[in-house]
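explain this chain.
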Amino acid sequence: MLYWLTELSDGGDVFNLFRYITFRSGGAFLTALVFGFLFGRPLINVLRRKQGKGQPIRADGPEGHFAKAGTPTMGGLLIVGALLTSTLLWARLDNPFVWIVLFVTVGYGLIGFADDYAKVAKQNTKGVSGKLRLALGFLIAGIAGFWAAQYHPEPLSNYLAFPVFKEALLYLGFLFVPFAMIVIVGSANAVNLTDGLDGLAIMPVMIAAGAFGIIAYAVGRVDFTTYLDVHYVPGTGELLVFVAGLIGGGLGFLWYNAPPAAVFMGDTGSLALGGALGAIAVATKHEIVLAIVGGLFVVEALSVIIQVAYFKRTGKRVFLMAPIHHHYEKKGWSEPQIVIRFWIIALILAMIGLATLKVR
């Protein structure tokens, strides 16, 4: 919205700053951060009054989690609210990729909100039917994938790009949209599975988002793509503003989610943020890199898949409990140990993912 101020510029005044993505990204970060600090406590108070007993705790979960009973959920509203406010204020609203990612974020946030509301209202952990959640998630992802394909440059539209090997492009044709659906839905649900301990999901999400903000800015500039020898996707640089808002809002939320959490992110936040990461990966043609940068989320999701499949086949468990962060809880690791060590892993994976920009 504030980009229109550039029309008042003669090229040498303060209004000219609004032309620069980096300046507006800084503004988005600070806006989202202040939003989080201003509205965090009032939102928590409202959620506590409305929810009463708070998020229901799994009866078969780790014993230490029963002490968290009564903690309100739907804290993702704070992140999404900060993210939307900052993006709409600082991003160029004539950029289709911004609207694609916002569409996915809000869509998945609404699915998560409905699920959180059902859990709190019924005071059980089931919430909305898994089939309905998946169906709605695939619908939103399908629209986003088709939408993004319309704005990808002709040499890349409906192709799968590979990291490291620049010339390796796989033509997917009409299969690109189903592929994009899998990426977005998989990302959303993987982040959702990771959100099981105080602060565990939000920091890796911010780390992954930061990495993809750099990727989006790089592939959206022809001079950078020429130097790095990567594919140019015009317009994606504007997603750095969105990412900056996500990080600012995430930090504002983490202030209240730090152990012991005053509020849980809930599916409202985890599905929205996971979907956003998937949408950015599709927009920037870095879907495979998402599996590297978001490797922590991949491992969390795989641990559940492996556990369920192996148990159905043999009646035995591979892990003491899935997702894998609960396995380490059962092994005696403290919650802060798990959270901080997983943050470190997320940062290492993000650095490896960013290295693919230059390794050719």
User: Anything to note?
Assistant: The chain has 13 helices and two strands.
